[in-house]
């Protein structure tokens, strides 16, 4: 569902770039606090144990190393999975997003950063989605499709206490929400080539596929973690 350059007007594209940039900075700062710890390192220490001078350094914790490894591994997996398109409708590729999977396995903000990294690499190296439209793609697939799915999963899991249902439902609704924003952005930019009903039908099919694949991939990863 990458939006190419030229499909959004300047106002929509710039607004979404600003929103995406703000979300990335916020998420990065929040995640950084959980991965790193600040420690004071003494320059001199007297025989009595009194520290003199010193500086504060930021160190990656053991938890941080483990989390970063999981983020890298899942990012590579999602990058590869996104290369296979379900369909290509008038220039818009429809494929597995992986946002819900990333949010469930890593946390909403950590999953968001992984999806952002994947989108940036795809944009710069593969030309999948335009550079000017990158903000819109991050907003739709990152903020809506990933963070939104992550919190929906937590809500469904707490309410129904069934992992597969929660994961599948969150992934499905995450795609539907992303498609609604996607269609709205194109319409406001005068680029609504497909009717809203047609777009939502495509989104419905993509959402069902996303939900099924998310459950399957989640089971696969968790089986590997338990072995």
- The first-to-last residue Cα distance is 35 Å
Tell me the β content. Answer: 5-15%
Helix content: 55-70%
Helix count equals 7
How many beta-strand runs? 6
Radius of gyration: 20 Å
Whole-number total of structural domains: 1
Query: Major sheet: size, sense and barrel closure?
Result: 2 strands, antiparallel
- Which regions are unreliable across 5 or more consecutive residues at pLDDT < 50? none
Question: What are the secondary-structure elements, in order, as H or E?
Answer: HEEEEHEEHHHHH
Output the CATH topology. Answer: Arp2/3 complex 21 kDa subunit ARPC3
Mean pLDDT: 86
CATH class: Mainly Alpha
Structural class of the helix and strand makeup?
mainly alpha
* Approximate shape: globular
Strand order of the largest sheet: 1-4
Query: What is the annotated CATH architecture?
Result: Orthogonal Bundle
């Amino acid at each position: 569902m990458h939006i190419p350059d030229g499909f959004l007007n300047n106002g929509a594209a710039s607004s979404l770039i600003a929103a995406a940039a703000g979300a990335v900075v916020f998420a990065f700062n929040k995640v950084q606090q959980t991965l790193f710890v600040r420690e004071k390192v003494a320059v001199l220490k007297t025989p009595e144990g009194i520290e003199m001078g010193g500086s504060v350094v930021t160190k990656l914790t053991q938890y941080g190393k483990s989390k970063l490894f999981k983020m890298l591994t899942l990012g590579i997996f999602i990058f590869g999975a996104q290369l296979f398109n379900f369909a290509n409708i008038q220039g818009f590729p429809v494929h597995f997003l992986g946002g819900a999977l990333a949010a469930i396995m890593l946390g909403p903000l950590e999953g968001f950063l992984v999806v952002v990294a994947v989108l940036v690499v795809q944009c710069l190296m593969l030309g999948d989605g335009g550079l000017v439209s990158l903000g819109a793609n991050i907003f739709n697939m990152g903020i809506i499709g990933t963070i939104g799915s992550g919190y929906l999963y937590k809500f469904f899991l707490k309410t129904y206490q069934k992992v597969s249902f929660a994961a599948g439902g969150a992934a499905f609704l995450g795609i539907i929400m992303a498609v609604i924003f996607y269609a709205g952005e194109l319409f406001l930019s005068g680029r609504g080539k497909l009717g809203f009903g047609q777009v939502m039908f495509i989104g419905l099919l993509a959402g069902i596929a996303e939900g099924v694949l998310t459950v399957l991939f989640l089971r696969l990863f968790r089986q590997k973690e338990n072995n």
